[in-house]
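Structure ticket #2291
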Amino acid sequence: MEFILYILAGAAVGFAVGLTGVGGGSLMTPILLLFGFPPHIAVGTDLLYAAVTKAGGVVLHRRQGTIRWRIVTLLLLGSIPASAVTALLLKTLFTDPEAYKHILTTSLGVMLIVTSMVLIFKKKLVANAGQENSGNSSLGFVRRYSGFFTFFMGIALGALVTLSSVGAGAFGAAILLVLYPRLPALNVIGTDLAHAVPLTLVAGLFHLYLGNVDFLLLGALLIGSLPAIWVGTKVGARLPENVLHPILVSILMALGVKYAFF
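Resolution: structure written out below.
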């Protein structure tokens, strides 16, 4: 019965991902925590779940030529070593996962709040992305040295995604919108996905090394979610965004506050 329940949970998250376009990490890890899974199992399992469910999108964008591999490389040069260092610190500084569970839940809460804020200001971010000559000198400085800041943000993403399983999607896309205002929307999505898949895979493998992955749970989630993502995409195309968007943002914000502060 539990296996069936996990399949249904995977289907629910997959449907929501297809419906809204928001990454499964923002939804799956909180659900697993609500099911009673320890934070380290929820985060570790969700990272591998995210890598598998996002992989199809990378294949599609690669065929369409909408991935900027130079940007992906700069992000990965920062994020993969940061993920490794983060996992190594968890292994070295703590005797068991119970000792660092508060770090995982707090990181999750913070990243859920950040994700909800990105969704709230998504349209403004997109509108401002092309305003390279807006008179904002600090923004101009950041864009002038976009390569350095891309690498630096990769480091931040590597650490935060490894701790929370959240951020490789919406937060990563927001970074690209700020740093690369001339990048077309499809390229932002494709480039973000192409970075998210190896990052979540590597971070998930580090958690596997730490003993933080439940393969039975992972299998059940994938069985439920993969077909549900396709169904959600079809249904979502027919529903108005202004109905789904506020509901999703409210849920993510509430969960973020819960895990960050309580």
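Closing remark: The chain has one domain: 2-261.
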